[in-house]
Amino acid sequence: MPSGYKHGDTPAKAMVRGTISYLESQGLPVNKSAIFRHFDLSRSQGYAALNTSSTPKSDDPEWGETRGRPSKIAESDLQKMEQILWDEKYEDVSLNWSGLAREAGLEMNCNRRTLHRAMGTLGYRRCLVCGRTHTHKRHREKRCDFARKALRTYPLKEDWRRIRFSGELHFGFGLDGRMRLAPRSGEKLCGGCEQEMGNVWPRDIRRLHAWAAVGYGFKSELVFYDPSTSPKGNGAMSMADYCDKVLDKVVKPWLTASGPLSFVLEEDADVFAHGSASKINLAQQWKDTHGLRCSFSCGESPDLSPLESLWPPNKQWTSDLLKDWEDDTLKQAAREAWAGLSQERVNMWVDAMPQRLQLVVELNGSMVSW
Ligand SMILES: [Zn+2]
Questions:
Q1: Cβ contacts of residue 294 below 8 Å, gap of 6+?
Q2: What separation in Å is there between the alpha carbon of 131 and the centre of ligand 1?
Q3: Structure-model confidence comparison of residues 331 and 74, the more confident one
Q4: Was domain 140-362 assigned CATH 3.30.420.10?
Protein backbone atom coordinates (compact mmCIF):
# COMPACT_ATOMS: atom_id res chain seq x y z
CA MET A 1 0.00 0.00 0.00
CA PRO A 2 1.20 3.53 -0.65
CA SER A 3 2.12 5.27 2.54
CA GLY A 4 -0.41 7.60 4.10
CA TYR A 5 -3.40 5.39 3.57
CA LYS A 6 -4.34 2.06 5.08
CA HIS A 7 -7.06 -0.49 4.78
CA GLY A 8 -10.05 0.48 6.88
CA ASP A 9 -9.19 4.11 6.46
CA THR A 10 -11.91 6.46 5.40
CA PRO A 11 -11.38 9.43 3.13
CA ALA A 12 -12.35 11.67 6.07
CA LYS A 13 -9.53 10.25 8.19
CA ALA A 14 -7.02 10.66 5.39
CA MET A 15 -8.24 14.22 4.90
CA VAL A 16 -7.79 14.98 8.59
CA ARG A 17 -4.19 13.82 8.36
CA GLY A 18 -3.65 15.70 5.14
CA THR A 19 -5.09 18.90 6.54
CA ILE A 20 -3.00 18.74 9.68
CA SER A 21 0.22 17.87 7.88
CA TYR A 22 -0.41 20.72 5.46
CA LEU A 23 -0.95 23.25 8.25
CA GLU A 24 2.14 21.99 10.05
CA SER A 25 4.25 22.15 6.90
CA GLN A 26 3.24 25.79 6.42
CA GLY A 27 3.85 26.65 10.07
CA LEU A 28 0.15 27.49 10.57
CA PRO A 29 -1.73 26.94 13.84
CA VAL A 30 -3.38 23.55 14.13
CA ASN A 31 -6.69 23.26 16.00
CA LYS A 32 -7.24 19.50 15.99
CA SER A 33 -10.69 19.50 17.59
CA ALA A 34 -11.98 21.98 15.02
CA ILE A 35 -10.54 19.90 12.21
CA PHE A 36 -12.14 16.69 13.55
CA ARG A 37 -15.50 18.50 13.79
CA HIS A 38 -15.14 19.77 10.25
CA PHE A 39 -14.80 16.20 8.97
CA ASP A 40 -17.56 14.86 11.28
CA LEU A 41 -15.21 12.73 13.36
CA SER A 42 -15.40 12.23 17.11
CA ARG A 43 -12.33 13.04 19.19
CA SER A 44 -11.38 9.38 19.45
CA GLN A 45 -11.92 8.78 15.73
CA GLY A 46 -9.88 11.87 15.02
CA TYR A 47 -6.96 10.81 17.17
CA ALA A 48 -7.14 7.27 15.78
CA ALA A 49 -6.73 8.79 12.31
CA LEU A 50 -3.57 10.53 13.48
CA ASN A 51 -1.87 7.43 14.82
CA THR A 52 1.71 7.80 13.75
CA SER A 53 2.15 4.52 11.90
CA SER A 54 -0.15 5.81 9.21
CA THR A 55 1.25 9.27 8.63
CA PRO A 56 3.04 9.74 5.32
CA LYS A 57 6.72 8.97 5.23
CA SER A 58 8.57 12.24 5.10
CA ASP A 59 12.20 11.19 4.95
CA ASP A 60 12.17 10.18 1.32
CA PRO A 61 14.24 12.58 -0.76
CA GLU A 62 13.20 11.03 -4.05
CA TRP A 63 9.93 12.80 -3.51
CA GLY A 64 11.53 16.18 -3.35
CA GLU A 65 10.28 16.99 0.10
CA THR A 66 12.02 20.05 1.41
CA ARG A 67 10.93 19.36 4.95
CA GLY A 68 11.40 16.33 7.11
CA ARG A 69 14.71 15.37 5.53
CA PRO A 70 16.81 12.86 7.47
CA SER A 71 17.75 14.55 10.68
CA LYS A 72 21.40 13.52 10.41
CA ILE A 73 22.17 16.68 8.46
CA ALA A 74 20.98 20.11 9.53
CA GLU A 75 18.61 21.90 7.16
CA SER A 76 20.99 24.88 7.04
CA ASP A 77 23.85 22.62 5.89
CA LEU A 78 21.68 21.08 3.20
CA GLN A 79 20.80 24.56 2.00
CA LYS A 80 24.47 25.55 1.78
CA MET A 81 25.24 22.49 -0.33
CA GLU A 82 22.19 23.07 -2.50
CA GLN A 83 23.34 26.64 -3.17
CA ILE A 84 26.69 25.35 -4.35
CA LEU A 85 25.04 22.98 -6.78
CA TRP A 86 23.15 25.95 -8.29
CA ASP A 87 26.21 28.22 -8.37
CA GLU A 88 27.75 28.88 -11.79
CA LYS A 89 31.16 29.12 -10.16
CA TYR A 90 31.06 25.41 -9.47
CA GLU A 91 29.70 24.24 -12.79
CA ASP A 92 33.18 23.41 -14.08
CA VAL A 93 34.38 21.80 -10.87
CA SER A 94 34.12 18.04 -10.53
CA LEU A 95 32.75 17.93 -7.03
CA ASN A 96 32.23 14.67 -5.24
CA TRP A 97 30.24 14.40 -2.03
CA SER A 98 33.11 15.06 0.32
CA GLY A 99 34.27 17.97 -1.83
CA LEU A 100 30.79 19.43 -1.75
CA ALA A 101 30.57 19.08 2.02
CA ARG A 102 34.01 20.72 2.35
CA GLU A 103 33.07 23.63 0.07
CA ALA A 104 29.94 24.19 2.13
CA GLY A 105 32.08 24.31 5.26
CA LEU A 106 30.37 21.36 6.88
CA GLU A 107 32.23 20.05 9.84
CA MET A 108 30.37 16.85 10.43
CA ASN A 109 31.27 13.62 8.70
CA CYS A 110 28.41 12.34 6.69
CA ASN A 111 28.84 9.36 4.52
CA ARG A 112 28.16 9.50 0.81
CA ARG A 113 24.96 7.55 1.04
CA THR A 114 23.45 9.88 3.62
CA LEU A 115 24.31 12.91 1.52
CA HIS A 116 23.03 11.29 -1.64
CA ARG A 117 19.75 10.37 0.03
CA ALA A 118 19.27 13.86 1.36
CA MET A 119 20.37 15.83 -1.71
CA GLY A 120 19.52 13.74 -4.75
CA THR A 121 22.00 13.65 -7.61
CA LEU A 122 25.19 15.70 -7.86
CA GLY A 123 24.98 15.65 -11.64
CA TYR A 124 22.51 18.40 -12.43
CA ARG A 125 19.85 20.77 -11.16
CA ARG A 126 16.78 21.80 -13.08
CA CYS A 127 14.25 24.22 -11.56
CA LEU A 128 10.77 22.87 -12.09
CA VAL A 129 9.27 26.36 -12.19
CA CYS A 130 11.62 28.69 -14.09
CA GLY A 131 13.53 26.02 -16.00
CA ARG A 132 16.96 27.24 -14.89
CA THR A 133 19.50 24.42 -15.16
CA HIS A 134 22.97 23.56 -14.02
CA THR A 135 24.83 20.55 -15.32
CA HIS A 136 28.03 19.62 -13.61
CA LYS A 137 31.25 18.87 -15.40
CA ARG A 138 31.41 15.10 -15.16
CA HIS A 139 27.74 14.78 -16.03
CA ARG A 140 28.17 17.05 -19.07
CA GLU A 141 30.92 14.78 -20.37
CA LYS A 142 28.72 11.74 -19.93
CA ARG A 143 25.84 13.44 -21.73
CA CYS A 144 28.08 14.48 -24.64
CA ASP A 145 29.27 10.91 -25.07
CA PHE A 146 25.70 9.66 -25.02
CA ALA A 147 24.53 12.28 -27.53
CA ARG A 148 27.37 11.56 -29.99
CA LYS A 149 26.77 7.83 -29.82
CA ALA A 150 23.00 8.19 -30.15
CA LEU A 151 23.42 10.46 -33.19
CA ARG A 152 25.67 7.91 -34.86
CA THR A 153 23.21 5.07 -34.20
CA TYR A 154 20.02 7.04 -34.88
CA PRO A 155 20.86 10.07 -37.02
CA LEU A 156 17.41 10.70 -38.51
CA LYS A 157 14.06 11.62 -37.05
CA GLU A 158 12.67 8.48 -38.71
CA ASP A 159 15.04 6.45 -36.50
CA TRP A 160 13.59 8.09 -33.40
CA ARG A 161 10.05 7.36 -34.54
CA ARG A 162 10.79 3.69 -33.80
CA ILE A 163 11.83 4.34 -30.17
CA ARG A 164 9.33 3.69 -27.38
CA PHE A 165 10.49 5.65 -24.36
CA SER A 166 9.52 3.82 -21.19
CA GLY A 167 9.76 4.36 -17.46
CA GLU A 168 8.01 4.67 -14.14
CA LEU A 169 5.73 7.55 -13.23
CA HIS A 170 5.15 8.28 -9.56
CA PHE A 171 1.99 10.26 -8.93
CA GLY A 172 1.49 12.12 -5.66
CA PHE A 173 -1.89 13.35 -4.41
CA GLY A 174 -2.30 16.31 -2.10
CA LEU A 175 -5.11 18.46 -0.83
CA ASP A 176 -7.94 20.03 -2.81
CA GLY A 177 -7.58 17.84 -5.87
CA ARG A 178 -3.90 18.69 -6.35
CA MET A 179 -1.75 16.16 -8.15
CA ARG A 180 1.88 16.01 -9.05
CA LEU A 181 4.44 13.83 -10.66
CA ALA A 182 7.38 13.09 -8.34
CA PRO A 183 10.39 15.10 -9.52
CA ARG A 184 13.55 13.33 -10.68
CA SER A 185 16.51 13.45 -8.36
CA GLY A 186 18.00 16.69 -9.77
CA GLU A 187 14.68 18.41 -10.33
CA LYS A 188 14.22 20.96 -7.56
CA LEU A 189 13.16 24.53 -7.09
CA CYS A 190 15.87 27.15 -7.41
CA GLY A 191 16.31 29.51 -4.44
CA GLY A 192 14.08 32.20 -5.93
CA CYS A 193 11.24 29.92 -6.95
CA GLU A 194 11.29 28.15 -3.59
CA GLN A 195 10.46 31.46 -1.89
CA GLU A 196 7.35 32.03 -3.97
CA MET A 197 4.01 31.06 -2.45
CA GLY A 198 2.43 27.90 -3.72
CA ASN A 199 5.48 26.43 -5.48
CA VAL A 200 6.57 24.08 -2.70
CA TRP A 201 4.54 20.90 -2.63
CA PRO A 202 3.55 20.31 0.99
CA ARG A 203 3.08 16.56 1.19
CA ASP A 204 1.69 13.56 -0.62
CA ILE A 205 -1.39 12.22 1.08
CA ARG A 206 -1.32 9.24 -1.23
CA ARG A 207 0.95 7.96 -3.98
CA LEU A 208 0.38 5.83 -7.03
CA HIS A 209 2.96 4.15 -9.23
CA ALA A 210 2.65 3.29 -12.89
CA TRP A 211 4.82 2.12 -15.77
CA ALA A 212 4.25 3.72 -19.16
CA ALA A 213 5.74 3.99 -22.62
CA VAL A 214 5.34 6.62 -25.29
CA GLY A 215 6.69 7.28 -28.76
CA TYR A 216 5.81 8.70 -32.16
CA GLY A 217 2.14 7.93 -32.80
CA PHE A 218 2.23 5.62 -29.82
CA LYS A 219 1.11 5.64 -26.21
CA SER A 220 0.74 2.68 -23.87
CA GLU A 221 -1.83 2.32 -21.13
CA LEU A 222 -0.61 3.05 -17.61
CA VAL A 223 0.43 -0.18 -15.88
CA PHE A 224 -0.18 0.32 -12.16
CA TYR A 225 1.97 -1.59 -9.70
CA ASP A 226 2.86 -1.83 -6.02
CA PRO A 227 6.41 -0.62 -5.43
CA SER A 228 9.18 -3.06 -4.63
CA THR A 229 9.58 -3.67 -0.93
CA SER A 230 13.37 -3.53 -1.07
CA PRO A 231 14.83 -0.86 1.23
CA LYS A 232 16.15 1.12 -1.73
CA GLY A 233 12.86 0.73 -3.56
CA ASN A 234 11.80 4.38 -3.71
CA GLY A 235 8.69 3.42 -5.60
CA ALA A 236 10.54 1.31 -8.16
CA MET A 237 8.97 -1.78 -9.63
CA SER A 238 10.36 -5.16 -8.64
CA MET A 239 12.11 -7.10 -11.42
CA ALA A 240 9.61 -9.95 -11.11
CA ASP A 241 6.78 -7.48 -11.75
CA TYR A 242 8.71 -5.92 -14.62
CA CYS A 243 9.10 -9.28 -16.34
CA ASP A 244 5.53 -10.34 -15.69
CA LYS A 245 3.35 -7.21 -15.75
CA VAL A 246 5.32 -5.24 -18.31
CA LEU A 247 7.40 -7.46 -20.59
CA ASP A 248 5.08 -10.46 -20.70
CA LYS A 249 1.66 -8.83 -20.53
CA VAL A 250 2.28 -5.55 -22.36
CA VAL A 251 5.41 -5.67 -24.51
CA LYS A 252 4.99 -9.21 -25.83
CA PRO A 253 1.72 -8.37 -27.62
CA TRP A 254 3.52 -5.45 -29.33
CA LEU A 255 6.16 -7.87 -30.60
CA THR A 256 3.47 -10.21 -31.85
CA ALA A 257 1.51 -7.43 -33.49
CA SER A 258 4.26 -5.66 -35.40
CA GLY A 259 7.39 -7.82 -35.13
CA PRO A 260 10.63 -7.31 -33.17
CA LEU A 261 12.13 -4.99 -35.79
CA SER A 262 9.29 -2.48 -35.60
CA PHE A 263 10.43 -0.73 -32.42
CA VAL A 264 13.19 -0.32 -29.82
CA LEU A 265 12.25 -0.11 -26.15
CA GLU A 266 14.20 2.59 -24.35
CA GLU A 267 14.51 1.79 -20.65
CA ASP A 268 15.25 4.20 -17.83
CA ALA A 269 18.94 3.88 -16.96
CA ASP A 270 18.41 5.42 -13.51
CA VAL A 271 16.00 2.73 -12.41
CA PHE A 272 18.16 -0.11 -13.68
CA ALA A 273 21.37 1.34 -12.31
CA HIS A 274 20.02 0.72 -8.84
CA GLY A 275 19.02 -2.87 -9.51
CA SER A 276 21.15 -5.82 -8.52
CA ALA A 277 22.95 -7.82 -11.17
CA SER A 278 20.54 -10.71 -10.86
CA LYS A 279 17.63 -8.36 -11.46
CA ILE A 280 19.07 -7.30 -14.79
CA ASN A 281 19.70 -10.86 -15.88
CA LEU A 282 16.07 -11.90 -15.46
CA ALA A 283 14.88 -9.18 -17.78
CA GLN A 284 17.83 -9.77 -20.11
CA GLN A 285 16.87 -13.43 -20.46
CA TRP A 286 13.36 -12.41 -21.40
CA LYS A 287 14.65 -9.96 -24.01
CA ASP A 288 16.99 -12.55 -25.54
CA THR A 289 14.25 -15.16 -25.68
CA HIS A 290 11.74 -12.84 -27.34
CA GLY A 291 14.09 -10.83 -29.52
CA LEU A 292 13.17 -7.55 -27.87
CA ARG A 293 15.46 -4.70 -28.91
CA CYS A 294 16.30 -2.35 -26.04
CA SER A 295 18.49 0.59 -25.25
CA PHE A 296 19.10 2.55 -22.09
CA SER A 297 18.30 6.22 -21.67
CA CYS A 298 21.12 8.66 -20.96
CA GLY A 299 20.50 8.67 -17.22
CA GLU A 300 19.80 11.73 -15.08
CA SER A 301 18.65 13.58 -18.17
CA PRO A 302 14.98 14.48 -17.95
CA ASP A 303 15.50 16.77 -20.96
CA LEU A 304 16.02 13.67 -23.11
CA SER A 305 12.80 11.87 -22.18
CA PRO A 306 9.28 12.75 -23.31
CA LEU A 307 8.02 11.03 -20.14
CA GLU A 308 9.63 13.80 -18.09
CA SER A 309 9.45 16.75 -20.46
CA LEU A 310 5.81 17.19 -21.34
CA TRP A 311 4.03 17.72 -18.02
CA PRO A 312 2.50 20.95 -16.69
CA PRO A 313 4.87 23.48 -15.04
CA ASN A 314 6.31 22.33 -11.71
CA LYS A 315 4.91 18.86 -12.58
CA GLN A 316 1.82 19.89 -10.59
CA TRP A 317 -1.80 20.38 -11.54
CA THR A 318 -5.36 20.14 -10.22
CA SER A 319 -7.71 17.32 -11.12
CA ASP A 320 -11.48 17.79 -11.03
CA LEU A 321 -11.86 14.06 -10.57
CA LEU A 322 -10.35 13.93 -7.09
CA LYS A 323 -13.35 13.97 -4.79
CA ASP A 324 -11.82 11.34 -2.53
CA TRP A 325 -8.61 9.29 -2.27
CA GLU A 326 -9.97 5.86 -3.05
CA ASP A 327 -7.81 3.65 -5.28
CA ASP A 328 -10.17 3.84 -8.23
CA THR A 329 -10.43 7.60 -8.03
CA LEU A 330 -6.64 8.00 -7.99
CA LYS A 331 -6.18 5.67 -10.93
CA GLN A 332 -8.83 7.52 -12.85
CA ALA A 333 -7.12 10.83 -12.15
CA ALA A 334 -3.74 9.39 -13.23
CA ARG A 335 -5.27 8.05 -16.45
CA GLU A 336 -6.81 11.43 -17.12
CA ALA A 337 -3.43 13.12 -16.66
CA TRP A 338 -1.80 10.59 -18.97
CA ALA A 339 -4.51 11.17 -21.58
CA GLY A 340 -3.75 14.87 -21.30
CA LEU A 341 -0.26 14.28 -22.67
CA SER A 342 -1.18 15.02 -26.27
CA GLN A 343 0.07 12.67 -28.96
CA GLU A 344 0.73 15.60 -31.22
CA ARG A 345 3.13 17.17 -28.72
CA VAL A 346 4.83 13.82 -28.19
CA ASN A 347 5.28 13.46 -31.95
CA MET A 348 6.84 16.90 -32.25
CA TRP A 349 9.09 16.17 -29.30
CA VAL A 350 10.27 12.87 -30.84
CA ASP A 351 10.94 14.46 -34.24
CA ALA A 352 13.13 17.07 -32.57
CA MET A 353 15.31 14.41 -30.97
CA PRO A 354 18.24 14.61 -33.47
CA GLN A 355 18.32 18.43 -33.10
CA ARG A 356 18.13 18.13 -29.34
CA LEU A 357 21.06 15.71 -29.22
CA GLN A 358 23.01 17.97 -31.57
CA LEU A 359 22.35 20.80 -29.13
CA VAL A 360 23.61 18.70 -26.22
CA VAL A 361 26.89 18.29 -28.14
CA GLU A 362 27.09 21.99 -29.07
CA LEU A 363 26.36 23.07 -25.49
CA ASN A 364 29.06 20.72 -24.18
CA GLY A 365 26.54 18.54 -22.40
CA SER A 366 24.39 21.19 -20.73
CA MET A 367 20.69 20.50 -20.21
CA VAL A 368 18.51 21.53 -23.10
CA SER A 369 15.35 23.48 -22.37
CA TRP A 370 12.07 22.71 -24.09
ZN1 LIG B 1 13.46 28.64 -10.51
A1: 264, 265, 266, 267, 287
A2: 6
A3: 331
A4: yes
